[in-house]
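Before a colleague's protein record goes any further, I have to sign it off. Thanks in advance; the entry in question is below:
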Amino acid sequence: MRRNQDRRSNRRGCRSRSSAPAAAAATASHVSNHSTPPANALSLAAVAPAGVAQPGATVQAPDPTPRPLDHLTLGGRADAPALVTREGILDYVGLERTVGSLAAALNGKGLRPGARVASWLPKNRMTAILPLACARAGLVHVPVNPLLKRGQVAHILADSGASLLVTGEARLATLEAGDCGCDAIVEEEGAAMLASDERLGPSGADPDSLAALLYTSGSTGRPKGVMLSHANLWLGAVAVAHYLRLVPTDRVLGVLPLSFDYGQNQLLSAWAAGACVVPIDYLAARDVTRAVEAHGITTLAGVPPLWVQLIEAAWPGRAAYGLRRLTNSGGRLPVSVVRRMRELFPAAEIFLMYGLTEAFRSTSLDPALLDARPDSIGTAIPFADVMAARPDGSLCAAGEEGELVHAGPLVAKGYWNDPARTAARFRPAPPDSSYPGTAVWSGDRVRRDADGLFTFLGRDDAMIKTSGNRVSPTEIEEAAVASGVVAEAVALGYPDDRLGEAIALIVRGEGPDEALRAYLKRQLPNFMQPAAIVWRDALPRSPNGKLDREALKRELMG
């Protein structure tokens, strides 16, 4: 089927589509049985999760039917573990009850339908339950990264028009008068809400209604709220659970921020598969390795800076060999890091992925192709049509560079209260798209080859224009890491009267400078050679754990 799609795609231009026909009757009946489920559905259910193949079963296409997000509580075996936090373990019966209790307590606050509920907390039971409880209560969840500071939090609260903030006493005390124009719930009251005897049953929410605002930073301006519907989040969870082949016996370690779409989906996709998720906060790589061993983790997701730390860490053999599935998004992994991951985790499949908050997830590389194509981000995931397009909307030929455009039901509803930026990013899909309507034009540069595989080249606004050439910083960074002299690298352009832009390479490593320059001269043309190499003991991180290019650029320009 995929080969036929690729042939059609190659005739029509550069795109990758993942179609999603209706699932098999058994899977479809499981979902439709829960369209208006009884409150005790979990106590009776021992059924396969929606759209996810069970061990030994024939792999079916994922069910494309969107559902209310809170129905994710209904997918697991009643007594199977669903959530492990410092407060203890919830099985799927407990998950359903706790979501119902918190939803009823939120309803008791007198909030109008569609009101925004912000959370600014470390990972705990409350932060894990809120996305589903808000969905059940007809409210919109606004998760705030716990690493953000007062000014950033105040902006998100004001911009979202939050009616309620769920936080801790210490964090609340950092806000100044006027920062929080809404009611606040702190630890003791929140714990009581989670344990309330009054419960709401599964909702009948319109899947197209708003479920969450996820705030994301761009290269300019303050964070903007991406509007995600129940359908966006439900189908994203089902799609990921399907292509990762998650099963109920999996245990997923949630190390990424739950305010980050990639991090939040670790919760949702685990529950879509009837699996268990263990969200943790960590300070060092050893915290992650210990958690993997302690909880028998099978699935671990990360961003490139985290993987660089993890391959440098000491891994207990049992923990390393117990991992079955590793995923990367949020940036391209150097080939040298991929190879080291293969050595450290021999039993694990490695999924290299690409995504953006505005469309959640776009592509994933089949692990079977990893050795042959470690530089690729793969093909479209289920429910996505991904294309390399020219500015006029026509599709690029194989091998031609273009902008990544994503169409389909995973595309968000736009930016909250920002019609100008919405119009700039969310535009009509290319005429050849299999999903007519609105697409997200990512601003990322990609190339699609004759086999349908995409390669990420860099952001359009990050490309360095030097000596009349457009240079991808990724290419320079990967060459620097491949030298073995540095562990991490960021390439940036800065104004130069003669070149237009000169290249600065900021690196973490021990040197020497001469060895790195000699390697780069062997690997890269003259116009890609850095004019300056800056050595750092550490590189700054964004709140989502990615390398903070904007902070480095500000330092460079300052």
